[in-house]
Amino acid sequence: MGEPDRVQQHLRVLIANEKRDRLELLAQVVIALGHDVIAREIYVREVGSATAREQPDVAIVGLGISSAHALDLIAEIVREASCPVIALLHANDPAYIHEAAKRGVFAYIIDGTPEELQSAIDITLQRFSEYQNLQGAFGRRAIIEQAKGILMARHAATADKAFAMLRDHSQRNGRKVADVAAAVVESHLLLLPGAERSEVVSPDDPAQPELPLP
Length: 214
What we know:
The chain is an alpha/beta fold. It is 55% helix and 12% strand.
């Protein structure tokens, strides 16, 4: 018995290329693969706002006549996107790939068959998801370390004791340690000089969990 068919994601795709004919060909390929082309952009001055407005799952930027134009398209999309941006090339071009990477492109694809394009998109989305998870893990670790530092300073506690305070509060309230740590950091920032009075949470608010602060 063969392996079950892979369930393919239905994606919202933004495509950009300064050559209109190449843009339309790419759109046809993407649509034939079962995805929605939610924006087709040629002009650098418009691609950023389109990205922010449409929030695509993935963006594909083709290399047209001018590499500078394509690099500007990439930079504008990366600035607004929370999705991977893929550079599509006709042939291997190390210099262009290097410049595209400096502008934040997540992956590149050498122009090929629709099946190869779909496979490359699948791999890119998987790696992007892994990258986001890794970034999230680093972010959570940094927040926990910051909260530990606050508790150590306020309670003259060791690092182990500060973490134990976070962990105990987490267990008592059924919350993740990272969420408790984020609340500690936020409360600490609100207590700093210059914090808006309206932003300070009342200790009598029953919706707010007790924090391990004085």
